[in-house]
């Protein structure tokens, strides 16, 4: 059975440099605005050298998205059906907010792909992502039915967490322009925790 040869240290380093540079370029300019020449320059490689590792801009973009998708789904996967419902949901929100702090480029890469109609990950959105959200929505619906959290639409709760946490990465320039010197993440965790705790705490 044939197997792919193990990359040399230089090959592994160059591939990592290309993906790191591409993340910068794609997250700043989107897929359409980025060029192979810009990515090669940012990686410190010639264009022919880059094309040795990736035959096209599309191939680089797909490699980035493939590596990102599992990371992006992990916080929702970690929502524990056997945990304390309110604390599980607050922990999920915190994980998503921390990703916006630590991985803003990745968030913008994903957002740009979605805004363009998700041409490269549409199949994953309608299969893996949908299956995961369906499963976790059933858990949230059960928590509502059992009175552990206030009545809430499970899907729209998840959508709202995505929106309110990823906003800090996807609209970073706008947020920082409004806040000035204030660190956007100084008060965001407490604000969002208060918001969701009040929303989800059962009446009485």
Any descriptors?
mainly alpha, 204 residues, Tetracycline Repressor, domain 2, Arc Repressor Mutant, subunit A, 2 domains
Description of the structure:
With 204 residues, the chain is mainly alpha-helical. It has two domains: 55 residues, Arc Repressor Mutant, subunit A (Orthogonal Bundle); 136 residues, Tetracycline Repressor, domain 2, CATH 1.10.357. Helix content is 77%, strand content 0%. Helix 1 packs across helix 2 and helix 1 packs across helix 4. The longest helix is centred in the first third of the chain and has 25 residues. It is elongated and about 65 Å long. The relative contact order is 0.10. The model has no long low-confidence stretch (mean pLDDT 93).
Q: How is the secondary structure organized here?
A:
Blueprint lengths: L8 H25 L2 H8 L3 H7 L3 H21 L7 H18 L1 H12 L6 H24 L8 H17 L1 H8 L4 H17 L4
Helix pairs in contact: 1-2, 1-4, 1-6, 5-8, 5-10, 6-8
- Fourth-tier CATH superfamily name of the largest domain: Tetracycline Repressor, domain 2
Strand content: under 5%
Binned, the helix content reads over 70%
Mean pLDDT: 93
Biggest sheet: strands, sense, closure?
none
Number of domains: 2
Return the string of H and E elements.
HHHHHHHHHH
Identify the CATH architecture of the largest domain.
Orthogonal Bundle
Secondary structure: number of strands: 0
The CATH topology name of the largest domain reads Tetracycline Repressor, domain 2
Give the terminus-to-terminus CA distance.
Answer: 65 Å
